[in-house]
Amino acid sequence: MTITSDDLCKFTRAIWESTLGLEVQPTAGLTPAEERACTLIGKVQIIGTRQRTVCLECTEELAGKVARAMFGLDSQKPTSDEMRDAWAEITNVTAGNLKSLGYGHCQLSTPQVAEREQGFPDAPESSVLARQAFVCQGEPFVVKLLEGQTPRRPDSDLEEIMEVRCNPN
Questions:
Q1: What is the percent of the chain with per-residue pLDDT over 70, rounded to a whole number?
Q2: Per-residue pLDDT at 151 exceeds 80
Q3: Distance (Å, rounded) from C-alpha 107 to C-alpha 77?
Q4: At what angle do helices 80-99 and 60-71 cross, to 10 degrees?
Q5: Which residue would you say has higher pLDDT here, 31 or 168?
Q6: How far is CA 148 from CA 51, 52, 91, 98, in A?
Q7: Within 10 Å of residue 111's Cβ, how many Cβ atoms?
Q8: CA nearest 147: which of 11, 8, 46, 28?
Q9: Which domains, from first to last, does the chain contain?
Q10: At what angle do helices 5-15 and 80-99 cross, to 10 degrees?
Q11: In Å, how far are 5, 6, 138, 152, 156 from 159, measured between CA atoms?
Q12: How far apart are CA 157 and CA 146, in angstroms?
């Protein structure tokens, strides 16, 4: 099954509303300044007969809002670790939902989060299967589904793999 931008919209809106209680709005695209502002990147690989990577990119401000919603921090400023943990979890939930769209027997990698300038290189545009930009409380973010495996962070020697049975449609 081919996953489209419409699928990314449907899943992302449902996940953010049910998991975080936050409303997200799809947008046609991001301006170059908004794109550069998305400095935190979360990635989870779907490993099976097809190799796919789910990638979520956001601003530091949005990662803070996600952490506050996820951990019930109210107006307290979340730590950097809390923001990274929250972004890893929302990336993992997104990947788990997308893998249910017919990937057969597959596994999810452990989520990885890095800052754009220190971590993951950008994926070549040719590997992007679906991409959708969103806005949440005035902050931009992007959800991408990439073909193949993306380069790993330089400091990640081993990845834990959790075996999951996917529900083929």
A1: 79
A2: no
A3: 34
A4: 80
A5: 31
A6: 5, 5, 17, 15
A7: 23
A8: 46
A9: 5-165 (3.40.1550.10)
A10: 130
A11: 28, 30, 34, 10, 7
A12: 22
- pLDDT bin (cut points 50, 70, 90) of residue 164 is very low
The residue assigned the tokens 């300044």 is 33
Question: In this predicted structure, what is the pLDDT of residue 67?
Answer: 96
Taking a C-beta distance cutoff of 8 angstroms, is the pair 83, 12 a contact? no
| C-alpha to C-alpha distance for 36 and 32, rounded to whole angstroms | 6
Q: Are strands 25-27 and 105-109 parallel, antiparallel or unpaired?
A: unpaired
Alpha carbon distance 123, 12 (integer Å): 21
Tokens for 152, please give them: 């790993």
Tell me the residue length of the chain.
Answer: 169
The per-residue DSSP string of 38-92 comes to --EEEEEEEEESS-EEEEEEE-HHHHHHHHHHHHT-TTSPPPHHHHHHHHHHHHH
- The CA angle 32-16-49, to the nearest 5 degrees, is 85
Reported as half-sphere exposure (CB side, CA atoms, 13 A), residue 102 has a value of 5
Structure tokens at 124: 């070549």
